Amino acid sequence: MGMYFSISGLIFITILSFDYFSRKRVSNIETIVYKYLLIDTFVLLLFDVLTAVLYKLGIDFNNLLYMFASKMVLVFIVLWLMIFSFYLKAISLFKKNQQSSLKSLFYTFFILFVFLIPFIIILPITFTKQDGNIVPNGWPVQISYITCILLFIYDIIVAFKYRKIITFQKLKPLLLLALLIVLDFLLQMFIPEAFLINFILALVVIIMYHTIENPDVKMIEQLNIARDQAERANNAKTEFLSNMSHEIRTPLNAIDGFSQLILEEKNIDTIKDEARDIMAASQNLLEIVNGILDISKIEANKLEIVNVEYEPAKVFDELVKLTKARIGDKPLEFNVNIAKDLPEYLNGDYVRLKQIAVNLLTNAVKYTKKGSITLNVDIVKKDNICRLIISVKDTGIGIKKENLDKIFTKFERLDLEKNITIEGTGLGLAITKKLVELMHGKIVVDSTYGKGSNFTVAIDQKIVNKVKTIKEVKEEKPTKQVNLKGKKVLIVDDNLINLKVAARLLLSYKIETEEVSSGFDCLKNIKDGKKYDMILMDDMMPKMSGVETFKKLQEIEGFDTPVIALTANAIAGMKENYLKEGFNDYISKPIDKKELERVLTTYLNAKK
Ligand code: ADP
Question: Which residues line ligand 1 (CB under 6 A)?
Answer without folding.
Answer: 359, 363-364, 366-367, 394, 396-399, 407, 412-415, 419, 424-430, 453
